[in-house]
Hints:
Residues 356-375 are annotated as: Disordered. The chain is an all-alpha fold.
Amino acid sequence: MRFRCFLLVASAGLVLAACPAVAAPTLSGELISDLKNLESRLSSDPSGVESQASQQAERLSGGNASDRWAGALYLQLAAGAEAAQEKYAEAADHLAQARNVSGVDTSQRDRWQREEAGLRLQAGQKDLAGELLSDWLQRHEDGDSLWLMAQLAAESEDWEMAADWVERAQQAGGDMSAKRLAFASAVMQRSGRLDQALAVLQTQLDQAGDDPEAWRRAAALAQKAGDPVRAAALWEAAWRKGLLSGDDDLERRINLHLAAGTPARAAEILEQALAEGTLTDDDAHQRQLAEAWHQARDRDKALAAWQKLATSSDKADDWLHLGQLALAWGKELLAKEALTKAEQGGAAEAEKWLAVLGNAQDSKEAPSPSPSQRQ
Length: 375
């Protein structure tokens, strides 16, 4: 499975705005003027800015605290110019140098580290981007970054790790778009966390309740999670909303009720569909109806359905099954008729069952033994 990365957009930004809240080394008026001049040329001459900013950064690297701070700002300018030219790896390298300059405060290092992670990702350096971002997230809580970490783990097919990041992103709150919900559901399914995947799908249903495919996915996932009752309930709700229709959806509705342990409801739906001609009244559907009534323990309806099936198919096995049920349920006349037809049709066991029926009838006709005979 492929996922589109939520790319971070690295921005060189206003260089002088990068000055930290705490007091930074004072810059000379000449350096400030040069920095502003280069920044103003970023969009029109990124290549020239890259060259000049890199040279200035190198020149100032061995100076005092003020020079080193100015050098770090020139490195950020060079990174911005390179990013504008889609030279993302070079831009990331310059930001890495900037955040490692001695004297740069922690908050500024973190800002540059976050931007570097975005550039590494755009450069295709996903492993390094993940390392940088994971480290950054130990000190910060940012929803977009958490989703990105989940995305990177999914790209590597590390589903357990991806699921962990998704959980953390969900806990952080923020935007839960349809794409993120779909992504979260897929990750949870791949990691085997089916209950959580189903919870995400339920959220999708709450947000987009008129999407039939979302209802289908939710029902399928509930069944996969071992919750056939919930699967049937979801399908039934979608059916009643008019989101599901047609023969295939109707068949699925019936089968889900059978799986959920509500065979009487399945039989009622199927019986109505056959009566209205919605589904073909063939042997397969009649057999399903008979089995549904049997599971529902409605003996009269089960026998009637099996009799209709046996009459239609005229198969020896169907007559035999009808005869066995009728005998077990005390319907001896029906049992005799069905077993006789089964024997005529070549069912090997029919003769044995007819003998059982005969013995049962003989026992009823025999006089009750006296107390002395019982002994």
